[in-house]
């Protein structure tokens, strides 16, 4: 009897994790197909074989669900480069790689729009950017400043805007394909923009 109860307790979290994964996957699909402005929780629930009550119970807002569905799928950042341009490129490569795969670019666009509309979703995106891009970017630029490769008067917010701005424009406005070497070009352009001369 005890063994059966223990088995039921262990089975629950696995089912919940599988259901969560299915909901996040269905959310990315719905973002890619319908976008944020026409997003349907009913479609997500149907595709994930989950109840709307479960979705509303697990996420504080639908926008947070949309943001998490994309952020949770961003590939891990490589940490293998040694040159400054390659190190900078590695910071943005997960976003570039994700946007280049399948229907991920419209899903990413939808998640960014959801984050623009909702504080909880915005915090999910902001936290990822702070940990994976902004923090490491400041360290790299500080090193490059010490070596005289970039000027001393750079501003962290302006550096982030200069670094990610072309990518956001490509995703949000131009709705254009992203080339394989886009991260490298972003890195090269940032170093050039912050060059002392």
What does this structure look like?
The chain has 9 helices and no strands. The protein is elongated. It is an all-alpha fold and 197 residues long. The longest helix has 33 residues, at 2-34. It has helices at residues 2-34, 41-48, 52-58, 62-71, 84-100, 104-117, 119-146, 156-174, 182-193. The relative contact order is 0.12. The N and C termini lie far apart (76 Å). Helices cover 75% and strands 0% of the residues. It has 2 domains: 2-69, Orthogonal Bundle (Tetracycline Repressor, domain 2), CATH 1.10.357.10; 84-193, Tetracycline Repressor, domain 2 (Orthogonal Bundle).
Task: Give me the strand/helix succession.
Answer: HHHHHHHHH
Question: What integer value in Å does the Rg equal?
Answer: 20 Å
* Beginning-to-end CA distance, first to last residue: 76 Å
Could you name the CATH homologous superfamily of the largest domain? Answer: Tetracycline Repressor, domain 2
CATH domain class of the largest domain: Mainly Alpha
The overall number of domains is 2
Structural class: mainly alpha
Q: In CATH terms, what is the fold-level topology of the largest domain?
A: Tetracycline Repressor, domain 2
Overall pLDDT = 91
| Percentage of residues in strands | under 5%
Overall, the morphology is: elongated
- The assigned CATH architecture of the largest domain is Orthogonal Bundle
Query: Helicity range of the residues?
Result: over 70%
Q: How many strand units?
A: 0
Unreliable stretches (pLDDT < 50, length at least 5) are 5-12
The number of helical runs is 9
Q: Biggest sheet, open or closed, and with what strands and sense?
A: none
């Amino acid at each position: 009897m005890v063994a059966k109860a223990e088995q039921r307790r262990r089975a629950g979290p696995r089912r919940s994790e599988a259901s969560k994964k299915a909901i996040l996957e269905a959310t990315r699909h719905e973002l890619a197909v319908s976008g944020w402005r026409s997003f349907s929780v009913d479609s997500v629930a149907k595709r994930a074989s989950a109840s709307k009550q479960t979705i509303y119970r697990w996420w504080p807002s639908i926008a947070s669900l949309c943001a998490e569905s994309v952020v949770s799928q961003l590939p891990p950042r490589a940490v293998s480069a040694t040159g400054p341009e390659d190190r900078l490129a590695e910071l943005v490569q997960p976003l570039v790689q994700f946007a280049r795969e399948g229907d991920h670019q419209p899903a990413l666009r939808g998640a960014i729009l959801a984050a623009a509309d909702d504080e909880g979703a915005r915090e999910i995106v902001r936290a990822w950017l702070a940990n994976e891009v902004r923090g490491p970017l400041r360290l790299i630029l500080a090193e490059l400043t010490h070596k005289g490769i970039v000027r001393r008067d750079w501003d962290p917010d302006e550096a982030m805007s200069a670094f990610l701005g072309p990518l956001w424009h490509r995703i949000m406005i131009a709705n254009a394909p992203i080339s394989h070497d886009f991260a490298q070009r972003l890195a090269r352009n940032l170093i050039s923009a912050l060059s002392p001369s």
